[in-house]
Amino acid sequence: MTHDRTDEPENVVLREVWRDVLRRDPHQAFFHADVRAMLRSIGPVLTEHPEYTDVVGRLCEPERIIAFRVPWTDDAGHVRVNRGFRVQFNSALGPYKGGLRFAPTVDLDVLKFLGFEQVFKNALTGQDIGGGKGGADVDPKTLSPAELMRFCQSFATELASHVGAAVDVPAGDMGVGSREVGWIYGQYQRLIGYHEPGAFTGKPAVLGGSALRPEATGYGTVYFTQRMLAEQSRDLDGARVIVSGSGNVALHAMDKVIASGGTVVGCSDSRGSVAEPDGVDVDLLREVKGQGGSVADYAGKRSNAQTSEGSAFTQECDVALPCATQNEIGPEVARALVGNGCWAVAEGANGPVTPEAREILREGGVAFGPGKAANAGGVGVSALEMQQAAGRERWSAEEVDERLATIMSEAYDRARDAAERYHGDPTDLENGANAAGFLRVAEAMTALGVV
Ligand SMILES: NC(=O)C1=CN([C@@H]2O[C@H](COP(=O)(O)OP(=O)(O)OC[C@H]3O[C@@H](n4cnc5c(N)ncnc54)[C@H](O)[C@@H]3O)[C@@H](O)[C@H]2O)C=CC1
Ligand SMILES: O=C(O)CCC(=O)C(=O)O
User: 316 Cβ partners below 8 Å, 6+ apart?
Assistant: First the structure.
């Protein structure tokens, strides 16, 4: 994406920050788009709080970027090498916190974008956690379980000296589930020589993983969506919902949609999408995906499911929950959603709706839940896992679910209140989430002095 001069912030300081960001890393389009959206949202906040102006430049520069070689041996005995990263973006509110992504598309641009999102998302949860993100440019789907364990161990060997319960607490993200977190944690524990369960979250339950952490992002996205729909005097009961992706976030969002009376009429994976107006059988989809199959393999077992290579979001729906990856909804798909009468879009994934598409949804009157608020349930429950580790406690699924619902409701309130206060429109949750997240981080950074 290129940016012309008309795209520059009016505020002189913000304009200088923006130019610095473009100059320092001219090729980081994902990061640029996210910074630009944040700078657009915080102009009115700085009018009320000029004392926070000087934190903006520091906020856009990660505190630390760690890049490292990940050597490992494949099953045929060949030595392979990947690149690993941890972007420790901001620790003003607490230890860096954020997931690890294993995907071929991982690079510094993607991780800086995700780390920047994480800083404000984590602030919106109301918990005392900073923001970071990491990962490696590996496609875990092409590795055998034995290869993936060796990969995780090699990755953890380098990561180990940079993380810890009070320093940086990674979790899973795309391509990294509780199994991989367990392997990374296992190698970490071996290296440090003692138990420190608070150093990673999203661990398997037997290692101290919180109840409901796997479900939390998907469930939380649905709780957030319910608040958005309530503003329109609507709810999920009877609603037709498309959920893209069929991984951790998507499958749990589907479960919660169905439990709320909605019908999941479409899903997808990286290989294609499925339309099924009678309703996706999520248990069957989970089983097929668990065996390494695709959504097309799932559709082959159903009588009324149509497959396509295009987007899942071009058929009729009331609610769209993009839960796969960044940039899955561009202008064309956004126009299809508006044209099909969609009421609301909430981002279960990070950055699935492009800036141009967000504008089209806004003009089309479609309610929009930005990822940094709508998918904050995962990291919210990760912070609960940190609390459980620190107190050597185990909370029940019911207790965690109640706290998750509160976290999502409070994140919604923070975004809505800031939207109303700084942008004069309580439904402008994108600007509201950015403004509310910024305020909390800026207050902490100011209190810490220039560090
Ligand atoms: N796991 C978590 O707790 C959290 C995840 N997220 C975000 O949610 C999204 C999904 O993450 P997970 O479910 O954990 O990952 P996952 O690896 O479990 O699943 C990702 C799914 O997306 C599909 N996919 C990938 N590229 C696609 C494309 N271009 N079109 C359609 N489908 C595609 C994959 O086939 C897979 O089904 C990511 O953006 C992640 O950053 C956000 C907050 C927390
Ligand atoms: O649970 C966490 O620490 C991080 C979750 C995550 O990666 C995200 O919110 O995007």
Answer: 240, 265, 340, 341
